[in-house]
Every structure is written in structure tokens, then in C-alpha cells.
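Recall the central idea of this unit: under ordinary conditions, the amino acid sequence of a chain determines the structure it adopts. In this exercise we apply that idea directly, starting from the sequence alone.
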Amino acid sequence: MKQFNMWCKAALLGLAVCAAPLALAAEKIWIDVRSAEEFQAGHLKDALNIPHTEIAAKISAVTQDKNAEIQLYCRSGRRSGLAEAELKKLGFTNVHNAGGYEALKAAAEKSGQPE
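Accordingly, the structure predicted from this sequence is:
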């Protein structure tokens, strides 16, 4: 099971790296900073998964544009706040803590947009 979990994490990172050109073309880059397991249980449409503890090491696979608009979210907003602070320390200027997944999902459903 441990080997399967490691494979899943590697596959998710690979997806994030493959999706990077798409994220560069997007108006906003949405990053879910929860664990891979939380991400698999549900996430916003087009969001990438980079756990908050790995954001500094893996953000360059998503964008190197320090002015790119980056929206971060997690379960409650705490981990996305930590990730926001880390990215700002790295020089990213347009980073936002969007808060918790459930609230964002509810807002998307209310506005008629797919999650």
C-alpha cells in the first residue's frame, strides 16, 4: 500500500508538471495546497495540487512568472495562508489566500459554474 501511495503522489506531481503550460496560459492559477488524499476526494475544476509543505520547491514547475495571479486554497484557509506567505517570501507578488474548499465549492455551485 505504501508503494501505491508513493506512486500516486509521483503521478500527481507529474500531472502538475504536465499541466504547467496550461496554467501559464490561464488567467488565474488555482492551487489546492491540501494533501494528495484530500485533493483526490474533491477539488476545484482546473486546480493543481501542491501540498503547502512542498509549495516552495514545486512552484517553479507551475510558473516562473512572479506576477502571475495565484489563488491558493485548502480546507479552512490556514494552510493556504502558510503557502501564501512562503510564495511571497520567494518574490511572488500576486498571490491570494482564497480560503477553504467547501466555501469555494458552494460559491461556484451558487454561481452556476462547475467546481
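Helices lie at 2-25, 36-41, 55-58, 78-89, 101-110.
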